[in-house]
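lol forgot to send this yesterday, sorry. struct tokens for the thing we talked abt
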């Protein structure tokens, strides 16, 4: 991810994965905030500066794409303004949309925010359906940024197809198979099988280790596989009745009760320390998570981690972003062309190779840097193959305007069950109370 980008329970990589290059290397991101273009008009020679405002790490700088675009368009210079934390970025972006001032030519949108913008701010964006071909993306990704009238406010960047990252050596010490295909077979029945595997692990677990890092992370994996999660298709908040939420909550409570989790909030300093120490056996693992693990686990555990397919027969997605063009931007036409180029298959493949964020443009899946990608840190796991197969069959989940708040509130209370011993009933009441105060 970029540095830490967190919304809707999702944080993006601080590390960079070189995939086809068979390495995983950590990069620290130095970001600056502040949006806005350097000039309103082209200079006397027709030169302009396009600004791209985003958060975390979209990977364009690391892949050298802005320099390449300048080579292709010598009159255009691209300047990226990065905000490390999406929770800081988004309120400022909303304010800029409301005032029509200070907007960059291109603005990033996190998936946990896109539905709110589709429903309430669609008029503030250029219709990218006139610039890109939405059918080039996995269908569920394009739908996330599309209004009922067919206007597309964002072009898809990355997605987060799910898997399970696991420690081969710890599984072997616990008497379990370490082969990724055998692990996939053992959890083929779904996340219930994942907990059964955890119970097997616990019987002979190496001292000081835990089957999973976080029950809230598993919860997000469970819910992400359902079409209806927090909202119904008619826009009603249904998280209290949602079958996916109930299944995820009950499984999380079971994991806590059976002490299968170390009870660590993902991306927190204790979580990072646990990876360094080697006490975590499995992590619910969207595509972008592998770079986090390789960064914090470090060289000592290189080759000891592996990646298996997600539990069950239903694919799941956790995370993803978009690029948009504000209608009141300073260089709307040129910004649209830049978005089209940045989200084309070749550029998405280049970003995947540079930082490990998985493409949403289907055309990238057959390119060598994606199709043949393996990850040395994870025992040469064929991540290009694993995630492309997942991406193509992920259900088109219904998004809601407050998905992020709902998911964060529930995850917080699962953490309280793990860390404070809060009962499931009291934790659920606290979660719903917090959510209802915000969404009514």
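and heres what i got for the seq, position by position
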């Amino acid at each position: 991810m970029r540095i830490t980008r967190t919304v809707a329970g999702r944080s993006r990589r601080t590390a960079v994965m070189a995939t086809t290059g068979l390495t995983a290397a950590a990069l620290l991101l130095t970001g600056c905030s502040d949006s806005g273009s350097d000039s309103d008009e082209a200079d006397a020679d027709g030169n302009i500066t396009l600004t791209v405002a985003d958060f975390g790490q979209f990977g364009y700088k690391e892949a050298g794409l802005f320099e390449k675009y300048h080579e292709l368009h010598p009159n255009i210079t691209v300047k990226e303004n990065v905000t490390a934390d999406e929770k800081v970025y988004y309120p400022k972006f909303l304010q800029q949309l409301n005032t029509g001032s200070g907007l960059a030519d291109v603005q990033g949108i996190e998936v946990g925010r896109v539905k709110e913008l589709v429903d309430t701010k669609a008029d503030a964006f250029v219709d990218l359906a006139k610039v890109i071909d939405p059918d080039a993306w996995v269908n569920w990704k394009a739908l996330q940024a599309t209004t009922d009238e067919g206007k597309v406010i964002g072009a898809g960047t990355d997605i987060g197809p799910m898997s399970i990252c696991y420690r081969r050596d710890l599984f072997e010490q616990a008497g379990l198979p370490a082969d990724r295909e055998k692990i996939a077979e053992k959890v083929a029945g779904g996340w219930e099988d994942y907990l059964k595997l955890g119970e097997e692990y616990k019987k002979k677990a190496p001292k000081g280790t835990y089957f999973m890092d976080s029950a809230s992370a598993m919860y997000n994996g469970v819910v992400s596989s359902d079409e209806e999660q927090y909202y119904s298709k008619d826009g009603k908040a249904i998280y209290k009745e949602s079958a996916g939420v109930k299944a995820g909550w009950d499984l999380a409570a079971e994991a806590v009760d059976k002490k299968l989790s170390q009870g660590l909030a993902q991306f927190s300093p204790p979580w990072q320390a646990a990876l360094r120490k080697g006490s975590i056996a499995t992590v619910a693992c969207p595509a972008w998570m592998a770079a986090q693990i390789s960064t914090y686990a470090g060289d000592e555990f290189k080759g000891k981690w592996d990646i298996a397919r997600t539990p069950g027969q239903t694919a799941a997605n956790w995370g993803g972003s978009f690029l948009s063009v504000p209608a009141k931007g300073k260089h709307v036409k040129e910004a649209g062309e830049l978005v089209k180029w940045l989200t084309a298959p070749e550029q998405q493949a280049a970003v995947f190779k540079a930082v490990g964020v998985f493409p949403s443009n289907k055309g990238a899946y057959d390119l060598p840097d994606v199709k043949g990608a393996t990850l040395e840190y994870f025992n040469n796991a064929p991540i290009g193959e694993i995630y492309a197969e997942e991406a193509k069959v992920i259900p088109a989940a219904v998004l809601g305007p407050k998905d992020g708040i709902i998911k964060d509130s529930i995850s917080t209370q699962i953490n309280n069950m793990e860390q404070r011993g809060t009962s499931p009933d009291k934790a659920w009441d606290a979660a719903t109370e917090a959510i209802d105060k915000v969404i009514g």
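The chain is about 40% helix and 15% strand. anyway ping me if u want another try
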